[in-house]
Structures are given as C-alpha cells and as structure tokens.
Amino acid sequence: MSAEPPATPRAVYAAIGCGALLLLGLVVVPFGVALATLDDPTPETRPPVDRPVDPALAPPPTPAPGPAPGPAPAGDARRVEVVVTESQGLGRVPAGTACTMDVERHDRPDGSFVCRTDLTCDGVPLYGGADSGYFDCTLYQGSPRHVAGEDRQTSRQDADPAFRVDTIRGELELSDDATGRLGAFVVRGRVTRVE
C-alpha cells in the first residue's frame, strides 16, 4: 500500500492567502502611494510668507548674495481695494460700492506682529478707528504683496466688527452685532487690487 499525503485543510490555504494580502497591503501599496506623491505635477505655489516667529525657535539666517528679503517693516502699508458684492443690514453701503484699506504691520514686544487697518466704503468707515482695527495676519512678500487675516470678534467682544480678508482668494467679509455703532450687518466684497 502506498501512503497518500494528508489532505491540506482549506483553513491553511485561507491563512496563506490572507498573509499574502496583508504583506501586499503593508509593503506594496504605501510604496506606490509614496512614489505617486513625489512627482505631483501640480504643486500649490504661494508667495513667500512673513509670519510671526518665536525668536527662540527661529533658525539662524543663511547668508545669500545680494540684499536679503526680510519681513515687511512696521508701518509699511499695503493698499487693498475692494468692491462690495453683498450687503445686508447696511443700506448706506450697497453692492457695487468701492472700498479701500491700508493694512499696516505693527510689531509686538515679543517679536511677533499684528496688522491694523481702517476700512472705508464710499466715505463710510466700517472697520478700524483710533484704538481699533487690529487683526492677526499673514503678510506675503513679492508682487502683489498679499495679506490674509481675521478678527473673529464682533463689537460685543472687542468694540469693532468681525473682519476677514484674504487677498490671494480675493475675499473680504465684515460683520457686526446689534451693539456695534452701525448695528447688525454683513458685508462681503471682492478684492480688486493689492499694492
């Protein structure tokens, strides 16, 4: 009599198949994803950024030939022009109204900075004033000198409207609650020019 090899149970084949799939998923798929992302033909490009930095964490500057690009100096204003696209609760500033603001950098003692502006639409001051108009911001170097930032608090919290600007996206939004000097309103606009 010849001895036949014992039959291999299906469970063994299933375990081998699952192990092979697991190995494929852990090794081959991540490697393929890594290769696909290394050669992305459409990387997002943005202008260089001037952001507040903790001086203790900043790397030492690398010398380069010629003048080094630096942060925008305090008081170096950027003019932003906007056209109102939507206005609610503020009849004095309808859609189509032209607005202007000069955004200035103000240094803080800790080495960071904040921006300040007065936004006026057809002679009507909407944001800013003697002791207000400050907002956290990012300033971009280059041409045009873009600015992005916001003040999320309305007059109830900090005595001026909530404010958001992003000149790269071409957006401006301003809103306030009933305690503000102009009452409750929402104004949205499209940035038309940045200098």
Structure, explained:
With about 200 residues, this protein is an alpha+beta fold. It is about 15% helix and about 35% strand. It has 2 helices and 11 strands, in the order αββββββββαβββ. Strands 2-3-4-7-8-9-10-11 form an 8-stranded antiparallel β-barrel. A hairpin with an 8-residue loop joins β10 (about 170-175) and β11 (about 185-195). It is elongated, with a radius of gyration of 28 Å.
What's the structural domain tally?
Answer: 2
- Low-confidence stretches at least 5 residues in length (pLDDT < 50)? 37-45, 53-70
Radius of gyration: 28 Å
Instruction: Specify the structural class.
Output: alpha+beta
Helical amount among residues, as a percent range?
A: 10-25%
Mean pLDDT over the full residue set? 78
Our count of helices gives 2
**How would a crystallographer describe the biggest sheet?**
8 strands, antiparallel, barrel
Strand arrangement, major sheet: 2-3-4-7-8-9-10-11
Order of helix and strand elements from N to C terminus: HEEEEEEEEHEEE
Task: Count the beta strands.
Answer: 11
Strand content: 25-35%
> What is the global morphology?
elongated
Q: Could you tell me how far the N terminus lies from the C terminus, measured between alpha carbons in angstroms?
A: 97 Å
